[in-house]
Amino acid sequence: MLNETLRALCELPGVSGSEQTVRDYILSEISDYADCHVDPLGNLIAQKKGKQRPKVRVMLDAHMDEVGLIITFIDEDGRLHFSSVGGIETAVLFQRRVRFGRHSGVIGGKPIHLTEKEAAKKLPDPDSLTIDIGARNKAEAEGLVSVGDVGYLDGPFDTLGDDLLLARAIDDRAGCAVLIELIKQPAEYDFCAVFSVQEEVGARGARVAAFSLKPDAAIILEATTAADIADIPAEQQVCRLGDGPAVSFMDRSTLYDRAFYDAAIKSGIPCQPKAAVAGGNNAGSVHLAGEGVRTLAISLPCRYLHSPSCVASRKDLENMRILARYMLDAIASGAVE
Fold first, then answer.
1. What DSSP string runs through 123-136?
2. Which residues of 86-102 are buried (b: 16+ CB within 10 A; e: fewer)?
């Protein structure tokens, strides 16, 4: 069930600032299980009733948005200039399929055989890349898209072997899938779930939600880079697929609550430390809200993050759900001090 929820979510468009399709799907899945509303920024907030009131009020967060592209200019010959929405490496962009609503395109640049020898050894300048949507001129292109339209790097949902999943937008539809399943299950304690917007452009939605909800503690459900690939030394691999969800002790925006971190690592549920101080997520906004929020991040290890070909483990996804439930109950009950 969890895998099918993830598949459905990964097949939906939801670039930062344009999350409505993802939000509508999630609302259709959880509206019978929680009291829901949408705030002015677009966050979907769900209040889940449990068997008892918590000693510690917990907010769980997963962001709905994905990285993408936004059209900034249309050439006379119909080519589209663009900027990235969120962090996308240039190597991921060149000659990739993109989609703007019903219209497809491909990111192109100067052909390799026409590039000077030294320049051919380097990545192209991002400003030299444009999107070809098959338009023969500006007027034809403007009949299909407009400046300000957002699109995403296109890629199908697939499987690799008997455990691995291949898809775009696993960051952070994986967290959304886990949170949907937690809401659908009976809860021991009341909790608040936030499906937040605009994480990829500065953790904006979670900042607003945490200010409004004023939780005592928060669990951020995310996806994170796994660098367990060829020629990467063990100490630089961050986390590995198959070893369970990654639990963060520190990143570029947050020093995580040590008691929460220790409780997760010692839970007996398969998990691993996120062995790097890098990146950031919604915790950077949430833990600074109000008078301060004790915060934990549980992340799904994912190879090739922010690309149309993210790879993650089904087993890790299931253990992420189990660990999130365990930590929710442990924190809400006051067992973790």
1. PPPGGG-EEE-S-S
2. bebebebbbebebbbee
Fill in the amino acid letter for 107.
I
pLDDT at 285 over 60: yes
318 pairs with which residues across the strands?
none
Is the dihedral angle over the CA atoms 122, 135, 104, 151 positive or is it negative? positive
The CATH superfamily label for domain 2-66+168-332 reads Zn peptidases (3.40.630.10)
∠ CA 289-295-296, rounded to 5° = 150
Check pLDDT > 50 for residue 114: no
How far is the C-alpha of 324 from the C-alpha of 217, rounded, in Å? 13
Q: Is the pLDDT of residue 6 over 60?
A: yes
Question: What is the radius of gyration, based on Cα positions, of the chain?
Answer: 21
Active site residues: 199
Tokens 């936004």 belong to 70
The residue to which tokens 């395109």 are assigned: 105
Checking if the pLDDT of 4 tops 60, the result is yes
The predicted model scores a pTM of: 0.94
Instruction: Check: CB of residue 182 under 8 Å from CB of residue 260.
Output: no
CB 277 within 8 A of CB 270: no
69-153: CATH topology is Elongation Factor Tu (Ef-tu); domain 3 (2.40.30)
DSSP state of 329: H
Angle, helix 314-332 to helix 258-265, in steps of 10 degrees? 130
Phi and psi at residue 302, to the nearest 5°:
-145, 120
Task: Judge contact between 172 and 199, C-beta under 8 A.
Answer: yes
Domain edges within the chain? 2-66+168-332, 69-153
* Residue pair 141/135 in contact by the 8 Å Cβ criterion: yes
User: What pLDDT digit, counting tens, does each position of 55-102 carry?
Assistant: 999 999 999 999 999 999 999 999 999 999 999 988 889 889 999 999
